[in-house]
Structure formats: structure tokens, C-alpha cells
């Protein structure tokens, strides 16, 4: 039987270091309980709603000290990079979360949660819609926010997000996507090979039999392999470790440096946990693991 969206989300939440347990239902689509004692209600928005419905969900949760997270079906928002005329409710969510809105997508049967940004277009009420990279379920940030506009959501609310994602810190989305395209094209067109010496080079720069170098005379050690080895080192395991070994090492170190569970000062824990996440993500991406 195919796994449902709610089942998938429940599994992702239960795998998080800071979450004690997650269930389907309660007073929302899903309810999660953090080790810190904080409770979270997750609402899935599958069709356009009224802003007052969002306010009602926020009011009910905040009144009892519970945080709220909204996830929106990407199909009711629009296509990446396209100009859209957003409804009042999505604009309200955008303001409520200080632009940290998340959408869920199911491309080719694989569920993913992605951040979105609504870029203002001068002189109109339209927005340019941008989708960010897939969210990794490593951290949930709980906080209180104060909203003055729009009036439909004015108030002080308990909300949550998946952290200060780099996607929102980079406001030049056109440049960001162009850079991603160039990086992908370079990775596809450059062939890296390991020769008998154990070194890794670009194929066009392979050393010749007489000791000289190949075309271009520019011997370059693979920066991809160097970074990959470093990422394994961050996790404290050997390069080439299995998927289960990598996951186990990550979870062990995550408990030690997660801001919610670490004995380190919060600032140092934040830096350490971010570095650990980056290393884990890079290893998974390099191996094609989900």
C-alpha cells in the first residue's frame, strides 16, 4: 500500500532529534511533541482558504500554548519562476511567517517539502513565485511572532519553521537559480577519474606516460572528492561508509551538538549543528540517497 502524505510527514517528524513523538490527528492534520515540552500542530492546506480560517487555527493553538506550522499544496500556488496573482490567504501566510512559507510537492511519487518566496513586482499586486531546495527535517524552530498587517491576522501567535534556510537569506533568486544551473552543467560535463596513482583528475588533464600532463597542462585534484572526504571526517566515519553507518553517525553527533540537546553554548551548538547538517546533506547528495 502506498504511503500517504500524512504517514510520510509523521515518519519525518519522528526521525528528528528534537521530536519525542508525532501522531496523525489531534487538533490538526498532525501533532508533534518536542522533548522540550513544546507541542506543534501541523496543518495541510490543500485548497484555497480564507484568512480567517488561518486565524482561527492560530487562535485555538496559541490560546493553549501550542505552536502552529502550515504546509501548502504547491499545485494551488503556481509554477516556479512564474508570475502569479496570489490570493489574500497566501499573502497573509507570507506575512505571518516573515516570508517563511512551505509547500509540499509529490513529484514522481516522492514527497518533498520546499520553501517558497513571493517576490514583489513593482507597480502591481502580482508576485514572482520561487521554490527553494528540499527541506531536510533536521530542526524545528519554535517562536512567537507579532503581526500588524494584514489586519485579518493581526495579533501575537506561536508558530514554527524549519530554521533560517539559506534560500531566504539570498534575495537574488535569478542569480541563485542561474548559478545552480551552471554548477549542474559543469558537473555533468566534467568527467573525474582515479588513476593507478590513487589521485583523482579531470579526464582531459590525465598525466601522460612520460610524466607530462594531458591537454591544458593543468593538473587539478578533484575538489568534489576533497570535500566529500572532509564531510565523512566531520561525521567521524571512513569514506565509503554505508548509508546506515552514515545515518547512525549523524544521529549520534546530532544529539551532542543540537541546540536543543547540546551542553555547548547555544551559539557554538548552532554552528556545529549547521556544519554537521551540511556534511550529512553533501554525502547523501553525492551518493544519490534520499
* E-strand count: 12
Percent helix range: 25-40%
Radius of gyration, taken over Cα atoms and rounded to an integer in Å: 22 Å
Treating each run of at least 4 consecutive H or I residues as one helix, how many helices?
A: 8
| Proportion of beta-strand residues | 15-25%
Provide the fold topology.
Blueprint: H1 5-14, E1 19-24, E2 30-34, E3 39-45, H2 51-62, E4 67-73, E5 83-84, H3 88-96, E6 101-105, E7 112-120, E8 127-131, E9 141-147, E10 155-161, H4 166-169, H5 173-189, E11 192-194, E12 200-202, H6 223-235, H7 243-257, H8 266-287
Parallel strand pairs: 3-4, 4-6
Antiparallel strand pairs: 1-2, 2-3, 5-8, 6-7, 7-8, 9-10, 11-12
Helix pairs in contact: 6-8, 7-8
